[in-house]
Design goal:
Strand content: under 5%
Number of strands: 0
Number of helices: 3
Helix content: over 70%
Largest sheet: none
Length: about 60
Amino acid sequence: MNGGYWILIIILAVTILGVRLLMDVFSSGSNPNVFIDKWFRKTLWLWLPFYALWRLVKEMILKK
């Protein structure tokens, strides 16, 4: 693929994510805690392995 296609795909993905975030913000009402909890659950699979790896390195390898 050409470099221009990758930029187009990235812009499209960011736009779709932004629209999705706006829809969830407005659907959760005025309570920001509901919105944050909802997105933590949706993105748990993405950030939890990195957090667990960081904790493992910190507690097991860097332990003095």
